[in-house]
């Protein structure tokens, strides 16, 4: 039986003899329960309908089944069909779907109360013609006109006798889990950090309980998503806080959080086990990515996809135990951090400027911040060969292809202990620009049925009411420019004959421009790429012609375009205070015909980065600039410390001085992407967006107040950028009759992988992480190690067939890497 389902999508039949769980592969599984043996056996499954035809659907096949409930008489099951905006009605006697009931947008959970069913709608009410809307999986969502985040959340009250919605209750944003108790319905509102208490007699909200982060003025992102009630006390799972809020429902402290119980990573649902007086808690991400990949060749490491969810059995705590647990939760979440007070009225604006101010709002020596976002590499893959850092040279498969990144850490700090909280691009980009990945964690992961918001603006339900890093800057009156990041899509002009421009065409155009016509050819006209976004705040500042994610365009093309734009800004004294750039080609495209090999993609990306840093360091704003470079995630590789560890660079005249000639200061401090965000916020005086950047410490040990204004000069690539399969130049980019010896001498397994790569990557060049990650990670490893080393955890080089077959049998997502 498949085990991929939403947290609320599991329930027992009325008599406990059957267990039902919804599947994103479009069915509800029903299993027989043997309580003596403690086993499940397949009983039957119920096929579910695909969503109605809609050209804007992310996935046209899956209804994205979610919450489940069974009527009291045990004859009928109800399932939330998230993509269909309906509730499916299942006859448990016949095992068939008998109908669908339209409800609100993106139904999540269901509870039954007599002849009524209550359904939470994360996307709120259906839109009217007068509403400002943004799409989520093809559905118009009523949204804020600036950040495009949902502005309504509702509960549909379904009359089961008529099969129609009898009433709609307005609750908080992104309502998720619910429970019934004593004539009241308790609704967890994930994006409002509240619990709505509904009187089921008149279906009105009678109380709203605040379960937000317990800090002055609040902090977004506690993430209430599930609730259980026992002995007059509510227990609320706070997914983003890795905790359970304990709330008495009566007495002098009624409806106030009394304390917290710690959980593992990301609790999503909760139930009370009366027989054992304990809470049963599902933790989606559990103990994190701790699956060790080891091999007979001595190579071992971790990957972000090796997650292990857990179920906690927690006895109800005594008063003393709750006090101890509360202290632990506060410590775990850094709610006691000295950095959480960011009130601007506490800032001393008369202080002398420093690189990183002590308080948000105080003057900084840095006025221009550049944030460059790359794709998917671990620390060990790039910098594991450096003896001064905590690296594993055996995993440094791209160390030799990245001379600029190695040169940067001879002068600027080597940060060898920085982590991405994300698993992949879909949650990686939100962690950077929204300081959290709330909907992606809670609903979309792990199978990304509804959307894949990896740097792209394509799902209104993934945006929070707190906005983005750029809106925080705009709120302070600062200027911002986006290059590629948060584009909602692009169009590229066709050739005169109607065909598409190839990687070789863009490469030759770049070569022509960089050599003033001595090499290459001006094939691609200027501004052939047009970008757009549906998020109003991003649309106003998104460069319309800088290419977003498209592996068919070399990063040199991006660098050429951006450097020209930047030099114009520099000449006109209009360099933005905050510039966010997506530089994506270190993602690679396998070993596909017409595209570079992984190592050559790395060389292209590395050279582009070096040239961009060089341009900034030779500009008039260098003396007041800081550049931060990070990966969106580190999923496409392994690391001997943790799969989430990534190469991060802090580059500025004000970064810490080298600890020795040619050796940048080695910093072992544990940091994450949120520390990078908080450092940017500290520099520019921005209000933190969520509890994650609020509680993060600025990266003080990476900076100093005495500048070194010497510029950085890029290092030329030490390998050709246009080398494809067979280690030969990509057709159309090299000599007319290049040597084919390498192609002819390829091993059978290499040829097989190249053929499979062509098939697996075809048409996906512009879709982040659209190739199965197991397939791509093996292919990249084999290619980078010249087809001589087995993948970590394995003893021989595998043929591609099993990976291709496994990818074909995975969940019905059309644009993800699971």
TrEMBL record:
Among NCBIfam families, the record links this protein to: beta_rpt_yvtn
PANTHER family on file: DIHYDRO-HEME D1 DEHYDROGENASE, PROTEIN NIRF
Name the InterPro entries on file.
Answer: Alkaline_phosphatase_core_sf (IPR017850), Haem_d1_sf (IPR011048), Host-pathogen_enzymatic-act (IPR051200), WD40/YVTN_repeat-like_dom_sf (IPR015943), YVTN_b-propeller_repeat (IPR011964)
UniProt source species: Aliidongia dinghuensis
What name does UniProt use for this protein? Phosphoesterase
Q: Which residues form a coiled coil?
A: none
